[in-house]
């Protein structure tokens, strides 16, 4: 009788271990949502500002750099099986500031813009579905566009001087090109219990854009057009709290 009782106790303990493991498992059909903090660090470079009309000329030695930015993020992942997941990532559009460099360093801040970059990733999770700690890698794409593009009065004045007109007689507006870009992603996830967890990831986005500037007179007549190419190539870190359904 004692032996039977001992065997039953061991069996119940084994079932308990299995139950606790399966409670952490990521299975086909699971949804995981997360929210946390993005830090975007551009690894930037730029080409000189080039006047394209009325006369082609290059502002030799001019350049620009982009500041770091932080914002709130949201991600939603669907597990196809215990290892493969598809994830969508969004964030409150971060605001970046563009500062002059080289011969434009004296101008200081050139302008600012908000960046929109919704992302879709295919992710592979290592270890087993019932492991609490799971490294992952991901590959995907993002579509990037910009809003609230504003130029500072300092840049407005510098451009007016370049075109030999009074700053008060002209106005310059800017547009940044939209583009698709690949996203390389890697990170780790840790599951505390059946529902709650945390994840940390690092992404690299080889990204470039072209700033197109249009200078017009106060009556709306075109005065000049100019442009500058920027490589942003941001490294993006993301720390998030997650919840599994």
Q: What would your notes on this structure say?
A:
InterPro entries: OMP/PagP_B-barrel, OMPW. Pfam families: OmpW. This is Outer membrane protein. It is a single chain. This protein has 245 residues and is mainly beta. Helix content is 13%, strand content 60%. It contains two helices and 17 strands. It has helices spanning 2-24, 153-162, and strands spanning 31-42, 45-46, 50-53, 57-58, 62-66, 69-79, 84-91, 95-102, 109-116, 119-125, 133-151, 170-176, 179-191, 196-204, 208-217, 222-231, 234-244. The strands form two sheets. Strands 1-6-7-10-11-13-14-17 form an eight-stranded antiparallel β-barrel. Strand 15 (208-217) and strand 16 (222-231) form a beta hairpin. The protein is elongated. The two termini are 43 Å apart. The model is unreliable at 1-22 (pLDDT under 50).
Brief digest:
The chain is built from two helices and 17 strands.
């Amino acid at each position: 009788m004692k032996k039977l009782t001992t065997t039953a106790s061991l069996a119940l303990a084994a079932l308990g271990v299995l139950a606790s493991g399966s409670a952490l498992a990521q299975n086909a059909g699971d949804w995981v949502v997360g929210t946390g903090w993005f830090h975007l660090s551009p690894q930037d470079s730029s080409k000189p500002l080039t006047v394209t009309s009325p006369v082609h000329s290059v502002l030799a030695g001019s350049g620009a750099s982009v500041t770091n930015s932080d914002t709130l993020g949201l991600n939603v992942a669907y597990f196809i099986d215990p290892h493969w997941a598809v994830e969508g990532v969004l964030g409150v559009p971060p605001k970046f500031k563009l500062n002059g460099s080289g011969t434009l360093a004296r101008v200081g801040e050139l302008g600012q813009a908000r960046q929109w970059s919704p992302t879709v990733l295919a992710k592979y999770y290592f270890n087993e579905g019932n492991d609490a700690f799971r490294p992952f890698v991901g590959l995907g794409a993002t579509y990037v566009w910009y809003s609230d593009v504003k130029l500072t009065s300092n840049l407005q004045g510098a451009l007016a001087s370049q075109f030999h007109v009074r700053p008060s007689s002209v106005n310059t507006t800017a547009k940044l090109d939209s583009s698709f870009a690949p996203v390389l992603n890697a990170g780790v996830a840790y599951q505390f219990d059946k529902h709650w967890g945390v994840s940390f990831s690092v992404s690299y986005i080889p990204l470039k854009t072209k700033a197109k500037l249009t200078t017009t007179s106060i009556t709306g007549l075109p005065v000049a057009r100019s442009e500058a190419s920027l490589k942003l190539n941001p490294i993006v870190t993301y720390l998030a709290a997650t919840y599994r359904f």
